[in-house]
Design goal:
The structure is a homodimer. Chain A is of the alpha/beta class. Chain A has one domain: Flavodoxin domain (Rossmann fold, 3-Layer(aba) Sandwich). Chain A has seven helices and six strands; from the N terminus they run E-H-E-H-H-E-H-E-H-H-E-E-H. In chain A, strands 1, 2, 3, 4, 5 and 6 form a six-stranded parallel sheet that branches. In chain A, helix 1 runs parallel beside helix 7. The mean pLDDT of chain A is 96. At the A-B interface, helix 4 and helix 6 of A face helix 4 and helix 6 of B.
């Protein structure tokens, strides 16, 4: 299979650098074809702006949505955006690796999504009607592909538990898992987490690598997080609220999983 | 009072540009001194990397935490970082304005926090003991200051409701309100939200401006979101889990508010 490994850390001689090397070796040893987007070494431009688009009539106000749609449809996107979109389209699975900085992905990785997730490619696709509100949340350009995040944190596991002060890690990752990956159609696997990074010594790294290898071996068989498809009947349209019959009386991120 | 207005949108001739102008005018009319960080026009560098630090011994591996601490303490930070830190220290309140892109702030704004929130300035401060786990979540360099987010979304209000498909807006903003702002000691006010931006016409903008003006007039009197201070006794230390007596049986972001 073809795997796209996207990762972000400013220092290759870091724990994330070691994890990135391990991921690439394991996937290659498993017989996969591995594409890599090492965002820091690529010097990826993080900010979405008008320079991304070679749109002729630039005297009018720049509109991120409309301009990205026009540029995507007309071939006026910058070359770096087109290259990354192609890698995404060609992959069977995406492995997204990053340190959790301030409870989210690093800015450079957020900017990777902002710039390549064009209108007409990642959003604003499909019919909008009384029964279908765009190809999103379970449908879209990434349908049939899998995604798994590999996330390191400085804090302890308990700090990210259900009652931990940081908030539960699955809720902190919801905007990424559900909002960025499931949105475009990916089947999203449970994350691979490494906590308390400053305490990871050689022995701990061996253990971590073994556990990570098992996850990579099972990349195409692990059951995905059972998020509810938006257009499958569970939500009202166009209000897009979960129907009363499901999880009655409950609110929050958790109700969007069927378990 | 002195207010720092930080905003991010690539096009000044946009709804966010109009809101930014309105915020600056209103705050000035109210007699405040307004500092502005217009991240796109400043061409703010979003990615945290070794170039941020003029640390002498750069042959050793770059470590974001350790290097940022050393640079902060030794005056080896880049000038743009120092300038923004000074603006934060000098302000009485922060108004943080952005369009919600992929369920979070734009990359350029995330990178503003990543680069200026140095170790020793925004985190890694205060005593770590059996009764106090750093000056954070209610204590820290920003204690006594207030913060309010002003957030625009393309989606409908119902899509961001308690049972909306995107997840509740207060949960999507939790990593920002609680994880970035309350973490360093800010009193965080309820956000000012503008939904369905493509439908905002002149009449709607008038109404929006009026409501926003009321919020700005009450910037120093509006009750903040009642997040629980980390070191006030509600959490176990060092596990940092909410004690059994509070919100028994519940998990998630909501338990970190006292209401």
């Amino acid at each position: 299979m073809r795997i796209l490994h996207v990762w972000a850390h400013p220092e290759p001689r870091s724990l994330n650098g070691s994890i990135a090397t391990a991921i690439q070796k394991t996937l290659t040893d498993l017989g996969h074809q591995v594409d890599t987007s090492d965002l820091y070494r690529m010097k990826w431009k993080p900010q979405l702006d008008q320079d991304d688009f070679d749109v002729p009539d630039s005297a009018t106000a720049f509109h991120p949505e409309k301009t990205s749609r026009e540029a995507f449809l007309s071939g006026w996107q910058s070359a770096d955006i087109e290259t990354e979109q192609r890698k995404l389209v060609q992959c069977d699975a995406l492995v997204l690796q990053f340190p959790l900085w301030w409870y989210s992905m690093p800015a450079i990785m957020k900017g990777w999504f902002e710039r390549i997730y064009a209108y007409g490619f990642a959003y604003g696709v499909g019919e909008h009607s009384d029964t279908h509100w765009g190809d999103r949340f379970g449908e879209g350009a990434m349908s049939g592909k899998r995604a798994m995040t590999v996330v390191t944190t400085g804090g302890w596991e308990s700090h990210y538990s259900g009652r931990g002060v940081n908030g539960p890690i699955e809720d902190l990752l919801f905007p990424i898992h559900h909002g960025l990956l499931f949105y475009t159609g990916f089947d999203v696997l449970p994350p691979f987490l490494v906590h308390r990074t400053s305490k990871v010594d050689a022995e701990c790294f061996d253990d971590l690598s073994h556990r990570l290898n098992r996850r990579l071996e099972n990349l195409f068989t692990t059951p995905p997080i059972p998020y509810r498809p938006q257009n499958g009947g569970d939500y009202t349209i166009p209000a897009l609220e979960l129907r009363d019959g499901f999880e009655p009386g409950h609110t929050g991120f958790g109700i969007h999983r069927t378990e």
